[in-house]
Amino acid sequence: MVHFVGAGPGAPDLITLRGAKLLREADVVIYAGSLVNPALLENCKPGCEIHNSAEMTLPEVLSVVRKAERNGKTTVRLHTGDASLYGAIREQLDALSAEGIPFDITPGVSSLFGAAAALGAEFTLPGVSQSLIVTRLAGRTPVPEGEGLRALAAHGASMALFLSAGMLERVQAELLAGGCREDTPAALVYKATWPEEKIVRCSVGTLAASGEAAGIRNTALVLVGGFLEGPYEKSKLYDPAFSTGFREAAR
Ligand code: SAH
Q1: What pLDDT is attached to residue 78?
Q2: CA gap 162, 132 in Å, rounded
Q3: In whole numbers, what is the pLDDT of the chain averaged over residues?
Q4: Which residue of 15, 125, 147, 195 has the fewest C-beta atoms within 10 A of its own C-beta?
Q5: What span, in angstroms and rounded, lies between the C-alpha atoms of 155 and 250?
Q6: Is 55 found in the same domain as 134?
Q7: For residue 224, what are the domain limits?
Q8: pLDDT on residue 12
Q9: How many structural domains does the chain have?
Q10: Ligand 1: which residues within 6 Å by Cβ?
């Protein structure tokens, strides 16, 4: 059995209770060493076989899993944040399915939410944006046509950009070309929820210079939108003058 587990954004106590239990009980752990906090591995049982997937290819990962299965062992495949975002799990799941190897998936707290928490931000603010665009800038690997940052920026929705902090000049240019204003609020969150977390608040027009000044190049999210700063409307949900299924409006 293979358990895919979301490790959370970094702080070791941000893994789920279920994920932590699976990790404690695992015979074999394959963890995404580039981003998973190694402190999480301290709870593995003695004798647990630990592999760092940052140094492995997909066939190598699969061969570790296959061997564990042959020996009746349980494997945890530990991914950073939540595995459904830029986790490359689908290719693993399909390979396991093809070989009849059973698996399940335990969600994790994406760094997207770690960053929002660090900033004290709400992505879906009434009167500002009710949508969140999760995307990345095309880099060494492409992004499908129609999903270019420029096109997505035109929506004016809240945005969270993964895997793009090393290309801030281009991020800034594409956002501006898409219709963001120079003063549209932006933020960089480096290693959200880790002890070395760094927050840089800026605007789209100062994004590249701010990242450069703070020395942020990787392991950071770029957040963009009016949700970061500025006016908004209060929710209807808690408006005394608004009835909901659970309470009557005050008269
Ligand atoms: N599945 C992960 C994302 C993996 S892609 C998740 O749900 O968070 C790797 C990218 O995620 C990094 O380049 C960076 O943009 C972002 N990232 C991962 N952990 C982060 C953290 N603690 N703080 C800020 N960004 C992070």
Answers
A1: 98
A2: 13
A3: 96
A4: 195
A5: 36
A6: no
A7: 111-228
A8: 97
A9: 2
A10: 9-10, 35, 79-82, 85-87, 110-112, 114-115, 162-163, 165, 189, 191-194, 218-221
Both 172 and 127 in a single domain? yes
Domain CATH code at residue 213? 3.30.950.10
Q: Which of 80, 82, 112, 200 has most ligand 1 atoms within 8 Å of CB, for mutation?
A: 80
Give backbone dihedrals phi and psi of 101, rounded to 5 degrees, phi first: -90, 120
> Between 58-70 and 90-98, two packed helices, what is the crossing angle to 10 degrees?
40
60 and 7 together in one domain = yes
* Interval between CA 249 and ligand 1 midpoint (Å): 42
**Can you read off the two tokens belonging to residue 132?**
């969140």
pTM score over 0.85: yes
**Which residue, chain included where needed, has tokens 């046509």?**
145
Q: What is the 9 CA–ligand 1 centroid distance (Å)?
A: 7
For the chain, give the number of residues. Answer: 251
